[in-house]
Amino acid sequence: MNRNDVLVMLAVLVMTLGASAGTISGKVSGVTGESVVYVDAIRGKTFPAPAEHPVMDQKGLMFQPHVMVVQVGTTVDFLNSDKVAHNTFWPSFQQGAKRGPGKNLGTWPQGEKRPFKFDQPGVAPLLCNVHAEMSGYIVVVPTPYYAITDKNGDYKIENVPDGQYNIVGWHEGGKKQTKQVAVAGGAKADLTLSK
Amino acid sequence: MSKLWVVLLSSIIFACGAVQSASAIPAFARQYGTSCSTCHVDFPKLNDFGKAFKDAGFKFPKNDEDFIKVPPVMLGAAAQKDVWPHSIFPGTIPGLPPIGLRFNTFFQVYGKNRNNFTAGTTGTVIPPTDFQPGLFSIFMAGNFGSGIAFWVDDDISVGGSGAAGGLGDGYLKFHNIGRLFKLPNDSLNLRVGQFEIDLPFSPARSWNLSGWDIYDEANLGALNGMSPQNVSNAFAFSTPGQGVEISGGHTYRGYHYSLAVLNQNTSGSTADGANVSPVVGIFSDSNFKDIYGRFQYRFNLERDPASRNEIQAAGAIGPRDHTYLQLGTFYFYGRSVQRFQGETAVLTAREPFYRTGGDFSFNYRTFNLFGLYMYGHDKNLLVNADGTGFFSGAPAHFSGGFLEADYLALPWLMTIMRYDRVQSTADFLNGQAGTPQNFFSPAGATRNRITPGVQFLIHANIKASFEYQIRPQQRMFDADGNPITSPFRTNQAVAGLEWVY
Hints:
The structure holds two protein chains of two kinds. Chain A is mainly beta.
């Protein structure tokens, strides 16, 4: 077996594995606006932290995006794009019913970024202590399988390997909902959230 | 003392019990989609950003257009500037009517000796407790583009009567017109209309339930048929002036100055600015223009130069107001007018007067200590024996001021301790010759007041306030220095509820 044969076999294997990954789709109802749906922690499985640093911007007196989902281990860059001073803090880090300690990142001038690594799953409700109306959320999830709903509440999580999972629906100010899903090339799961 | 506790408890219960869903925001908050607390410490007290917003002509100091959530209506395309003067210079009006509304209401408790006004007489009968509707006012402000700011506020009703309202400030302010003459940025502005003069601490936008006494001090002599005539100048600093003002600099750092030319005002009322016929009486007229000037310098005390020069200081956990020391001085020169029947004609006395003083404000984080001292002097022209002219009598003068400490214990809780003092020889003259003119300035030499207070922000736009006004014994003397009335002293507890939307 030469080297080319090995490469071909590997490619076939990868394609086969790819074929066994599916899409979880569905609709989140009961709330309006963006919701987050993600696959909860999978026993015995860990995922490498993404190298990419998503940017949470402060622009026009708003956190943009309003809701950001990142995988555990991700470093988020907090940017100030405004010509006014901003601050970013979260009073607590919500991990289910438990509330972990908050964090105040301080203040920095326009155009500069301040990185922060989220190494636990949970939700950081972002606030600015200068502009009381500003709010944002960083939802830290344990797997790379997540989606944010569109304005109709529809979502689609792609490339989920076949298997049994718990999916979780989260909405700002709402109660989380968990649902079991069996993925075999694809699955549908609707969630109804409430505040 | 028990009543004090009742009021205290009532205001706290009111503050807690009144919490309900409300997202009321006045004109600027609506326009920018931001909270009142962006500009106010404890409304209407401004934080550093609010001062910069005001200095910039009711705009964000930098990149204002990036923050406006309701786009303005263009009154001409921006490119019309290029064809001016062959077109109207383009401006804007706010996309929403820039209207804010304000209402307040009070509950007052007076001390037991509230009716001991003067010995042997009964003054105004003052009830021990009193619910008082305050004022309902409308205010509109914004920017028309090209650095032209506007402000109009009007009390629609006062004290629930609906009859005593009136225009507060109404002006246009042309910001940074110095750029037309290549002067440094923000060094020259022009304001035209009716406005509160540029006082170090604005009584019109004071956060206290009761005003600073010195700003209401008028040099009033006896109103006793004009003979003998005494100083009767009802002008007080709290009265808006009508005229023009140039100003420059910033109120959040460095220098700030203003110089105003205003209608003469003897009556203390802004409604009496017009010329009047030469009839006997005490009038305002417009034949003389008063002059007011102010200069202040604010030293921002942060060590880091970048932070020091920013609008807000860069604190460890977020921007905050600077630690600063501000020093200022002011001077007002005017002439009060009295006309009375002389031997052959109506004689007009224009009595020169001036007010001058200094002020300071020191801020450390959430603690602010500030004060003001003022000296007032009125020349006293008396009719000569044959009724053909005047000679100078003893001038009327007063002095005094206030010292106040504000501590923002929590972002929604401010404690206040304040001391007011007014020493007046006009009160002295008054005490000799006539009836005291108003309840809070009886005949007497010196009035002292100590006023502790506390204010709660229920929401950023709803405030419950409480203050207890302690008036120590007041001493009054006749011309020989003998006490002439019994000591007058009344304490007053006031609880107020105010909201803007």
